[in-house]
UniProtKB/TrEMBL annotation:
Residues 4-164 form the 6-phosphogluconate dehydrogenase NADP-binding domain. Gene3D superfamilies: N-(1-d-carboxylethyl)-l-norvaline Dehydrogenase, domain 2, NAD(P)-binding Rossmann-like Domain. This is 3-hydroxyisobutyrate dehydrogenase family protein. InterPro entries: 6-PGluconate_DH-like_C_sf, 6PGD_dom2, 6PGDH_NADP-bd, HIBADH-like_NADP-bd, HIBADH-related, HIBADH-related_NP60_sf, NAD(P)-bd_dom_sf. Signal peptide: none annotated. SUPFAM superfamilies: 6-phosphogluconate dehydrogenase C-terminal domain-like, NAD(P)-binding Rossmann-fold domains. The lineage of its organism: unclassified sequences, metagenomes, ecological metagenomes. Coiled coil: none annotated. One of its GO terms (molecular function) is NAD binding. It comes from hydrothermal vent metagenome.
Amino acid sequence: MKKNITVLGVGAMGCRVATRLLEAGYSVSIYNRSRNRASALINAGATYCETPIQAVARADIVISMLTDDLAARAVWLDKKTGAMQGMKPGAIAIESSTLSIECITELSVLFAQQGISFLDAPVVGSRPQAESGALIFLVGGSQATLAGVESFLSFLSSAVYYMGESGAGAIMKLAVNAFFGIQVAAFGEVTGWLKKSGMDQQQSIELFNKLPVMSPALQGISKLLASENHQPFFPVDLVEKDFAYMLKQAAQIKAQTPCVGATHKSYQQAIEKGYGGDNISGVVRLWGED
């Protein structure tokens, strides 16, 4: 018998995860702050609930895919409607949003105080991977808790990596996003310089893709740049948010992150220019302008 699942947050990622679960025959309850974004899922058989606490009442597994710390705290911790206080005994909470280490630590402590099993399990991947079940989960928390949901996570993913105790998944996710963001910004600077130096930009990008300096992720970005496609799979404003989360924690532990800091400023500039809703590739527009 399939477990009852609740998905908190059915935006770009959550709606695709919920759709995949519905298609596989899971009983799925959903909550989203904007009901109109849940219409397609309701038509597909999901049960929409007006509050998080109602949404989790029957759930064996609750997975959250929210925008930021503010949304996560509101959905989990609100004194009247928060999901945490509505979970049944034995249910497992999975936080798959990209949040700050501070927020994940807070959630972990509060869930433990309530006797609720909790995993931080942010994902690597975007909308296409969510649709096809090819996400990658980076998991922090109890290995015993992970064992209880590993088959569920595997259905949604191509890989599940256990990173360590609570918070380890969140730490690794911020590192992954920062590393990706640095690559994209650096590529934008270099190709912008090549263009202004009189080089053919398309030819330059094609050459880069033949060289070992290009990561697979950057090759994907280069294809988007070649067609000037900035459809927001991973929007600039969320990239900037993740850089800010990493830098805040880096300052607290006195870690030196000069490249992260410099690149963060580029994403802030991109938002100021009006590119916040663009895909991460939109940052490249900073250096392509005349």
